[in-house]
Here is the input.
Amino acid sequence: MHREFKSAIYEQLARIGKAVSSPRRLELLDLLRQAPRPVEELARESCQSVANTSHHLLELRSHGLVESEKNGQYVTYRIANEEVSGFFSSLRVLAESQLAEIGRITEKFFTDRDGIEPVNREALLDRVKNGSVIVLDVRPREEYDAGHLTGAISIPVPELKRRMKTLPRNREIVAYCRGPYCLMATEAVEFLQKKGYRATRVEFGVSEWREHGFPVEMTNREVRP
Here is the structure.
């Protein structure tokens, strides 16, 4: 009887491991932590075909990690709950602590980009509180609307060239995006530095800040399909 119980429980736990055994599905989960999205947008963001993206999303849904809703011709996916987001963060922290290759990959990438040094969250909060920095959210607007650091300005990377003149040159700019493996903030900082702005990136995304109890707010707008 005890053996049957344990076997049944561990079989269910293994379902989660199976669901996240694909790098593509992990990337989709990370995207959905930012905001709900239709399949077509997820396919574009993850550089996959719509068919392949749909297959991975169905696998995630069958194991209870994401939910879906059909609106007309669009099927929008979202993470099932904040526990899923927390699980992803814990998985990332565990992998970083146990797999030295992750550190080597990230260190090499950012070392090759002069001046793109992250600031820690405590330093950023101090600077925001005393008004000495501009906090720039460079993610797509839908993600900003779904949740952003309080006081952050939304200028998605594709709009940065057109709107950079709205940013003051006499204040430091701190850009953030989806988290430590997202490169949008790096791209934005590189561009701003070339244009003479004092800019740096913060390596935490909204999900990580929320999990650490820092202020996050939403824009009262409907997320578009």
The longest strand covers residues 66-71.
